[in-house]
Design brief:
Length: about 80
């Protein structure tokens, strides 16, 4: 099975050990799960963005007065 050597500073290593212990996992299992979760998060985010893009026209048609956040002003005048 492939493996990987990862270098950490002393402070980083202590933080990672603390995080692993907080989850009740070995350091090896914690780092493995962290990488897998990140891949899953990116896959989910890409899928959600794709889904939103597919439905954007339908949403805009159903809610013509809704202003996208990127086009809203800031402060009290935005409300």
């Amino acid at each position: 099975m492939p493996s990987l050597n990862v270098t950490f500073t002393d402070d980083e290593m202590e933080a990672v050990r603390t995080a692993a212990a907080a989850e009740g996992k070995s350091l090896k299992q914690y780092l493995h799960d962290l990488g897998v979760r990140e891949m899953q998060r990116k896959r989910f985010t890409a899928g959600a963005a794709s889904w939103a893009d597919r439905l954007r026209d339908e949403f805009d048609e159903a809610f013509p007065d809704e202003v996208p956040p990127s086009q809203r002003g800031t402060g009290a005048s935005a409300a």
